[in-house]
Amino acid sequence: MVDAGDAVRWLQLNAPRGGPDELALLVSRAAGAVGATEIVIYLADYNQSCLVPLLGAGLDRDELTIETTLAGRAFTTLDVQRAADNPDRLWVPLLLGCERLGVLEVVSPAAADTALDGPAWELAVNVAQVLVNRRLYGDVVERMRRRLPMQVAAEIVWGLLPPLTFATDDLVITAILEPCYDVGGDIFDYALNGDVLSLGLFDTCGHGIKASTLASLVVSAYRNARRSGLDLVDTAISIDRWVRSEHPSYFATALLAELDRRTGRLRIINAGHPGAMLLRDGKAIRELPGPTALPLGLGHLSKARPQVHEEELHPGDRILAYTDGITDAKSIDGDRFGVDRLVDFVNRALNDGLPSPETMRRLVRAVLAYQDEQLDDDATALFLEWQPPHLPLGHLRHVTAPQP
Predict the structure, then answer these.
(1) Are residues 131 and 175 in the same domain?
(2) Is beta strand 283-287 parallel, antiparallel or unpaired with respect to 186-193?
(3) CB atoms within 10 A of CB 207
(4) Where is the PPM-type phosphatase domain positioned along the sequence (predicted)?
């Protein structure tokens, strides 16, 4: 039986000795330890439309589209894929916890044997860990993932974002934003501290560097307030004061939320933002109440303190939050994408049983296609799922790899 242990240990010992540019070669050299002749890393590009090979050791590969290839199916379904007409090759999702990085191509005479799936998963998990640990020391990974030049405004925002997807046994949070190479005003953040998941979704006014500079201040002020132990209301007030102090002519809409993962109690402040949607049993049941506070930076116009809306979630409930770039996207005929079309799309995705990260990816692709690939505003969506551990784990299969 194939054992990935030797390959994993070899990678862990040797990866710290080289730079990011050497990762492809290191992984290729580990192939023999799992009975493979070749192993190739493919990384998802920024807008998650294609898989880009990270090449080394004289290997030659082309980019692969996510929509139409087996490699893409492995990425979207998070399952090992193999083709009957190509029995020496399998595709394994490349995951760090639950964040999708790309796929691993394993070429082996034993690829048709499902006994290889477990060792391949184990190797892919360790490759992902090495990749994330080493990529910060060079630019090769960033360069490979970029299909277009990235504007400075987008560089600022992407440098501040947390991983797009995070999950535990009882929580899943995943987000996506476009246009990924020119985004400026939208930003989000989240943190799990004990039993409380905190999250913030922000849409700053303006475009370009001014918007991304304001976004940087907003998310930094949010983190500072959260880490200082401020409650939800005082967090909103603190961000509001920072925006007014540093950018007196600007503002940001926001959703600030806290979820108690023991009880399912969700507390939200809506600061002039589009309302989030509550989804239950595979369908959207209602939109959560609209603004409970003025946009951040305009709080001085009212003597009232921000109001907190509370919602008692049911096990398995999901919350979809979004910026107006989603619903305001317009077709060639001038028709808005709108809330109704958004609800219909999400309902169909839930009924199809898509993993949450894939639902978000397809949603943004649908919005882009609706507006002929030319967004007039940033389009960001954030998806939260609460799944208490005493329930079946079926909803979480997309973040749990099979045991070797």
Answers:
(1) no
(2) unpaired
(3) 14
(4) 136-386
